[in-house]
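The instructor's notes for this session suggest beginning with a concrete chain rather than abstract definitions. Hand out the sequence below and ask the class to guess, before any prediction is shown, which regions might be ordered.
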Amino acid sequence: MSLLNPVLLPPKVKAYLSQGERFIKWDDETTVASPVILRVDPKGYYLYWTYQSKEMEFLDITSIRDTRFGKFAKMPKSQKLRDVFNMDFPDNNFLLKALTVVSGPDMVDLTFHNFVSYKENVGKVWAEDVLALVKHPLTANAPRSTFLDKILVKLKMQLSSEGKIPVKNFFQMFPADRKRVEAALSACHLPKGKPGGAR
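After discussion, reveal the predicted structure:
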């Protein structure tokens, strides 16, 4: 790479982000705290977490507005959650483990995803490195081919136990274009009848 012709390289995802870390995901509205494994896919397209039931939730990196840790992370208001995290004890180290990921389509309609790590200072490192992926110039200015690659990456992360892509995932990916999805599956000689079927 020459100084006269700089090339913008895609963001590098640190290995520990792809391998994942154990967190507890909590929600003040439902007062539920669930153990999850938090990860970033190797290409840096999604922050996602897997519940013990193997159910996965995805958050597009481009929808993340901020990451917060320590005293800037959200604190549980419900007494039930405060008890779960032993927050009323003087030697509590909740702030050293807290991570909040703020996402939304704009800076007004925001959703707060709250996590607590099992180890101290993990939330801080995750907050900094995920925000670095969010702020990378190619994240917001990706070429067209990246959007197709993102779809493929997400579909491949949700394989069935047989290692196939469930047909319902195609319909979930393109909910407004059901007829076009069916036509595309037919053209490829893939099953399209039962949404529960696999590719």
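Then share the key points. The mean pLDDT is 87. DSSP finds seven helices and seven strands in the chain.
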